[in-house]
Specification:
This protein has about 220 residues and is an alpha/beta fold. The protein has a single domain, classed as P-loop containing nucleotide triphosphate hydrolases (Rossmann fold, 3-Layer(aba) Sandwich), CATH 3.40.50.300. A hairpin with a 5-residue loop joins β5 and β6. The structure holds adenosine monophosphate. The site of adenosine monophosphate (AMP) has 18 residues, from α2 and α3.
């Protein structure tokens, strides 16, 4: 039976970083709907063309598009034991659709990891974030700089600032989070799989809390 893990939390709480680490630790694929959408935008596919403007504005891509790419991704052989979702589900509709997908395939959500962090810290983290244009590795100008400024430690490609990490778009994304995604906390809160994680402190400290939470 496949066991899938999901992360909840506002943009900038560290979901991406922690999901990547947890995926390595548990040897499960890291499935980021944001990364998949950015890849579609780059490839110029039909989904990419439809998603690009929405993403740049900080709004959410339609539930239909998201469920199509998620369902397709779960068919891949490497997803047989489960995946670490990152940035999904983002709406109560997506969460319901995921529950249906789980029931239909005899799978479960084995952990709902809710990372909590103050808004001010979030804005600071997002505005300093830089990502590798090639492999998606995540850095921060102050808290996690690469060895050579502007260059990825892993694959040596150029680091870029995401279009939606500009200050006004960050504010929009936080507002979208409050209205569309925060209700997911109530949706999952009473399940045995739900875990609240303190997102403050360095990435190592937060990761240690997550490892503890998935062991429980
Ligand atoms: P992320 O990399 O997770 O911050 O996602 C970047 C952008 O992709 C978001 O601001 C949305 O426009 C879009 N996106 C990613 N995941 C989802 C999702 N599950 N539902 C709707 N839109 C999404």
């Amino acid at each position: 039976m496949s066991k899938h893990l999901i992360f909840l939390g506002a943009p900038g709480v560290g979901k991406g970083t922690q999901a990547q680490r947890l995926a390595q630790f548990l040897r499960l694929p890291h499935v980021s709907t944001g990364d998949m959408l950015r890849a579609s935008v780059q490839s110029g596919s039909d989904i990419g063309r439809r998603a690009a403007a929405v993403m740049d504005s900080g709004a959410l891509v339609s539930d239909q598009i998201i469920m199509d790419i998620v369902a397709e991704r779960l068919f891949h052989e490497d997803a047989a034991k489960g995946v670490i979702f990152d940035g999904f589900p983002r709406t109560v509709n997506q969460a319901r659709a995921l529950d249906t997908l789980m029931q239909d395939s005899g799978s479960v959500i084995s952990a709902v990891l809710h990372i909590d962090l103050d808004d001010e810290v979030i804005v600071e983290r997002l505005s300093g974030r830089r990502v590798c244009s090639q492999c998606g590795a995540i850095y921060h100008e102050r808290y996690h700089p690469p060895v050579t400024s502007g260059v990825c430690d892993v694959c040596h490609a150029a680091l870029v600032q995401r279009e939606d990490d500009q200050p006004e778009v960050i504010r929009r994304r936080l507002a979208v989070y409050e209205s569309e995604t925060a209700p997911l906390v109530a949706y999952y809160h009473d399940r045995p799989a739900y875990r609240l994680i303190d997102g403050d402190g360095g990435a190592d400290a937060v990761f240690a809390r997550i490892v503890e939470a998935v062991r429980e």
